[in-house]
Amino acid sequence: MNSHKLDDKRRLNTNRRLRIRKSVKGTPDRPRLSLKITNLNLHAQVIDDSVGRTLVAVSTAGKSKEKLLPNVAGCTKVGETFGAELVKKGIKQVVFDRNGRRYHGTVKAFAEAVRKTGVSF
Fold first, then answer.
1. Can you tell me whether residue 106 is helix, strand or coil?
2. What contacts 103, CB < 8 A, 6 or more positions away?
3. Which of 7, 74, 95, 117 could crosslink 69 through cysteines, CB 3.0-4.6 Å?
4. Architecture of the CATH domain 25-116
5. pLDDT in tens, 10-40
6. What do you get for the CA distance between the two ends of the chain, in Å?
7. Tens of pLDDT along 58-74?
8. pTM of the entire structure?
9. How far apart are CA 28 and CA 11, in angstroms?
10. Which residues are 56's β-sheet partners?
11. Cα–Cα distance, 67 to 41 (Å, whole number)
12. Strand locations in 5-101, DSSP E?
């Protein structure tokens, strides 16, 4: 891939994320659920932006017994465990931050799995 084209894609993605972040804010009663999916891993965290504190975080990058891939099946499994953690911490409502990605495929699978556990957004 041409390096100029790659730079353009990165710039457009950064602009998209920043444009979305202007309106998506986490509060103490409705924290922000931030989802980052890379080619190798999935990172999700719930953040209270008023104090800048991460309340709950999960990632597939750590040492675990089973290696979960960032595909639809892996995102569904991680979403279910992440939703259970949120319910255990008493978080029932969040604001969903997709980090500029479309609500499709892996993002959709993760979101639906979290919603199944009783968390609404």
1. helix
2. 111
3. 74
4. 2-Layer Sandwich (3.30)
5. 899 999 999 988 889 999 999 999 999 999 9
6. 37
7. 998 877 667 888 899 99
8. 0.88
9. 31
10. 46
11. 10
12. 32-37, 42-48, 53-59, 95-97
